[in-house]
Amino acid sequence: MRDKNGVEIRTGDVVRVSGAFFKNDNGLYFVDHSPGEAGWLGSDYSLHRVCRNGRIATGKNRIAFWPLSAFTNDRAKNAEARAWNAEHAEIEIVPFKKTDEIRAHFEDEARNIGEAIRHYVDWCGWDENGSSIAGYKASKAAREAAAARLAA
């Protein structure tokens, strides 16, 4: 998928969402998972809110998905929000210099996946070159690649 300027959105990019029906959906996010990425079964982009100072948000509305969704207990409002977002909501990759915490997030996930691989091989007897471990290795490589892009 591409942003409003035609640039392809990738895992690790910092994006700005604007024009959303619910105003709390607008803001800065980093792309945590992309469709087709190893280890991600979703068909949407998983976004995690980031503060202007580079901290990863921990508040109530910190996670979103692109394209934006609406989940309220009013079916009419959900339909109105989906129609509004389809027409007006935009996503744009923005230059962002304070990516240290985001990079650390991806490095931590890669390290955790590496520990899981070691556990499955050492303690569970899985074949290190088997198909079960291959998915974990691909996911770890994707996380390391996102961290490397942010470090550059």
Q: What would you report as the Rg, rounded to the nearest angstrom?
A: 17 Å
What pattern of helices and strands is seen along the backbone? EEEEHEHH
Calculate the mean pLDDT score and round it: 94
Give the tally of β-strands: 5
Q: Roughly what percent helix?
A: 25-40%
Spans of at least 5 consecutive residues whose pLDDT stays below 50 are none
- Distance separating the two termini: 23 Å
**Spatial shape:** globular
Task: Tally the structural domains.
Answer: 2
Specify the structural class: alpha+beta
Q: How many H/I helical runs? A: 3
Q: How would a textbook summarize the main sheet?
A: 5 strands, antiparallel
Percent strand: 15-25%
The order of strands across the largest sheet is 4-3-2-1-5
How would you summarize what this structure contains?
With 152 residues, the chain is of the alpha+beta class.
Helix-strand layout with pairing:
Layout: E1 14-18, E2 27-33, E3 45-49, E4 63-66, H1 75-88, E5 90-93, H2 100-122, H3 131-151
Antiparallel strand pairs: 1-2, 1-5, 2-3, 3-4
Helix pairs in contact: 2-3
What would your notes on this structure say?
This protein is of the alpha+beta class and about 150 residues long. The chain folds into two domains: about 15-95, no CATH class; about 100-150. Helix content is about 40%, strand content about 15%. It is built from three helices and five strands, in the order ββββαβαα. It has helices at about 75-90, 100-120, 130-150, and strands spanning about 15-20, 25-35, 45-50, 65, 90-95. The chain has a five-stranded antiparallel sheet, with no helix packed on it. β1 (about 15-20) and β2 (about 25-35) form a beta hairpin. α2 (about 100-120) runs antiparallel to α3 (about 130-150). The chain is globular and about 50 Å long. The two termini are about 25 Å apart. The mean pLDDT is about 95.
